Amino acid sequence: MMITYNNLENSFCVCFVFVGLFIFYNWTINYQGVDGTNNRYPVMKMAPKSIEKNKKVTKISSNPNSNAIIIPYRQRFDHLQKLIPHLFNFLNNKSTHPDLNFKIFVIEQSEKMIFNRAMLLNIGYLLAKKEESEFNCFTFHDVDMLPIESSYSSSSSCNYNCPLSNKIAYHLAEKKSNLNFTKEYEHYFGGISILTDFQMMKIGGNPNRFFGWGGEDDVLRIRLTNRGFTIKNQENCKINVLEHSRDAGNNLQWIEKIEKTKNND
Ligand code: UDP
Ligand code: BGC
Predict the structure, then answer these.
(1) Who's near 205: CB < 8 A, 6+ residues apart?
(2) 82: Cβ below 6 Å to ligand 1?
(3) Which of 167, 192, 198, 250 could be stapled to 172 by a disulfide with Cβ–Cβ 3.0 to 4.6 Å?
(4) 212 CB under 6 A from ligand 2?
(5) Cα(59) to centroid of ligand 1, in Å?
(6) Which pLDDT tens digit goes with each residue over 153-202?
(7) pLDDT, tens digit (0-9, with 9 covering 90-100), for 48-88
(8) pTM of the full predicted structure?
(9) Rounded Cα distance, 221 and 218, in Å
(10) What is the whole-number distance in angstroms between the Cα of residue 211 and the centre of ligand 2?
């Protein structure tokens, strides 16, 4: 499934995207807002693939602060319905993100295969690049992570603006509620990260071979640092992590995969 929302056109689009198989259809979705209010999100039908193919995409030369937010997703609807309105409010706050353009892409994997977070992120990245507006950066965003608004500062402590330099990538999920807002480990790069398009192209994206839990975010970090990019940890950003159990069918055999897939898939 892919759901998109953006603050440019004031429209929503929901379509289903399974890995390797694209099915488009109308969908209407009701979200219960975190504040208990009900929001009904209109849905836009996607053109069939053949039409998409022939469609000439004229890129709207856009704001350099245009961020495609990509959420890998499967069977966590309770999380999704909390995250979408939360992010929408968070990113539309003009005092913290005054000139940010964003669009949210939810990429859903079918039920049959072992979950592959990194591949979904790559699919989202490629789909975002086919959009009419041009994105300068891409946020890889877990569905269970809600940024917490700073209560003492007008500038947000979780900064979703595109990095000002192609040399720097951001990591936002440094302090998580499930760990009492302490650091996971020194080089943790999971949860929420922001990369520029230039960086994604230089490193060849996320590693596609990581079926199952863990490791793919470590490889993404290694790919960035191997190419000389710097990771800026947003030390003041706090994240509220929603509870979940680990999904069945995933495995932990990722350590050897890290060595094998540092740079080459
Ligand atoms: N995810 C999902 N369904 C799954 C497994 C993972 O939607 O069955 C997505 C979701 O965005 C989640 C992210 O992948 O936040 C990372 O997975 P998980 O939360 O299980 O890993 P953890 O953060 O607990 O290490
Ligand atoms: C895994 C990462 C994961 C992290 C936090 C690490 O051991 O390699 O993929 O994000 O733990 O759970």
Answers:
(1) 121, 122, 125
(2) no
(3) 192
(4) no
(5) 32
(6) 555 589 999 999 999 999 999 999 999 999 999 999 999 999 999 999 99
(7) 344 345 556 677 666 889 999 999 999 999 999 999 999 99
(8) 0.82
(9) 5
(10) 14
